[in-house]
Amino acid sequence: MPSVSLDSERFRRRFDTFNKIGATERGGVNRPSLSDENKAARDTLVEWFREAGLEVRIDTMGNIFGRRDGTDSDAAPVLFGSHIDSQYNGGRYDGVIGVLGGLEVIEAFNDAGVTTERPLEVVDWSNEEGVRFQPDMLGSGVYCDIFDLDYAYEREDKESRRFGDELERIGYKGETSCEADDIHCYFEMHVEQGPFLEQQDIPVAAVEGVFGFSWLNVTFEGQANHAGPTPMDMRHDAFVATADVTRAVRRITATEGTDLVGTVGSVDVWPNAINVIPETVEFTLDFRSYDDAVVDAAVEQIREEVAHAAEREGLEYEIEEIMRVDADPFDQGCIDTVVEAAETVGCEYTRLVSGAGHDANYLNKIAPTSMIFVPSVDGISHRESEFTEWDDIVTGTEVLLNAVQTKAAE
Ligand code: HGY
Ligand code: MN
Ligand code: MN
Hints:
With 410 residues, this protein is of the alpha/beta class. The protein is 35% helix and 20% strand.
């Protein structure tokens, strides 16, 4: 079999060109799901998929698949990819290296004139980040039958724009039904988004599973009033209760010996005026652990904390769990394939569990799945200064190439 190798210069040119789309002044990207910038990135990706000779299909959730036929065109394909939607001021690597790295793997087979036995498919999943439209991993979630299409189409952003309407507006409400095909296996290469690989000075990790997590929306309803004449004992201040719950998140997650993490990431205050007691606060909670029982307990505790904070301040409240993903170990066969691929490449590697959610969470429920991590400098992600050394990305992509080649011959 002729040797199949990456062209890292081509890959780098593509990566740099791609990240000019929605580039921010501070070196990051702003390509939130279904925005004009996301459309421009999608258009570029479809053009590159076609230039690479891939058969492109877009499904009803806007997931973009590029298919390269195999000698056995009826065989279940090897699927690999990630996402190109970003945080509002996110990093250039999160998701993008998994999609463009997947395209580079395809191009390497093209350059070598090698046709694999199984078909290969590279995918860009819609709405992985879940910052504009919650919940996250919506495109892969509908594909894996976690969410139904109507639910997804009804999701609204903060300006009350519907997911389904925005998907149509950017021209990516495809024809193909968004439902799982028969897939041989799924790989996703991604930046670690944590500090461990860099701390250990290791370029690659075979990912053994992903944390489970819960996302909740909380609304406190108090009473706006004048910040001056209103005596403190007459106040019903929605923000004070929010602060109480935020401190409670720190107390709950301070328990030694667990991997539990908790975040209050998004807070909307109304009327948000310097001299008005906050009437309404809507905020989010994000709890994660590799142990589902630990997440369940944290959610239980925070529900009590919300009720107590509302009672203390004399507020009405609502709490809604908008998403719950269970922790899942990945497929041992796929993990072993990633390990063997790293040994073939000859790079040092370790094994990690992912604290970040990925489309692989859901693919893992319908097909053998694993992931490949490459280091994040200073463990930074979801921030414009997210950075990964290019050599590490090339190494990770070589591991992806070898893993795909192995599974495509099975
Ligand atoms: O929330 C996550 O872990 C992912 O970035 N959507
Ligand atoms: Mn990601
Ligand atoms: Mn992300």
